[in-house]
Specification:
single chain, 141 residues, mainly alpha, two-stranded antiparallel ribbon, 5 helices
């Protein structure tokens, strides 16, 4: 299950993606019904990861730092929530053997979780922020 923080991050990215001029955190907060302080922390993480840029001043705000077609849901989720895997033994980015694991090579649970991770990654890595969410009932409004 993804966190509320991750859902907010995805909504913020969809809000920013089509814009050609910077948008303020206040506007995003109002339009997406995201608490402003929470949004500002999320935007700081996304900026540090290189997905958004910001500018100060009267006309300042946030824009994507990369083309929307180059940023996947998986990219954002990994920044906000960490690895996509359900267990550390199934993670590609943060692998760690489970504390109670008898044999990582023969563990049936790990084999299943690897398949889940691969399927999840396949979907999330192919969803980009240049896709129009209004046209896609899966993405929602």
């Amino acid at each position: 299950m993804i966190s509320q923080r991750a859902r907010y991050a995805i909504r913020a990215m969809f809000n920013i993606a089509p814009r050609t001029i910077p948008v303020s955190a206040s506007v995003i907060s109002d339009e997406e019904a995201i608490p402003k302080k929470f949004l500002e922390a999320i935007l700081a993480e996304l900026k540090q990861a290189g997905f958004v840029s910001s500018s100060r001043g009267k006309n300042g705000g946030y824009l994507l730092a990369l083309p929307a077609s180059e940023i996947s849901f998986a990219d954002v989720l990994r920044v906000v929530d960490g690895p996509l895997a359900l267990a550390p033994c199934a993670s590609r980015t943060a692998y760690r053997r489970c504390d109670d694991c008898r044999d990582v090579e023969t563990c049936e649970t790990r084999k299943a979780l690897l398949r889940v991770r691969d399927a999840t990654a396949e979907i999330l890595e192919n969803r980009r922020f240049d896709e129009i969410r209004a046209a896609d009932p899966v993405a929602g409004p």
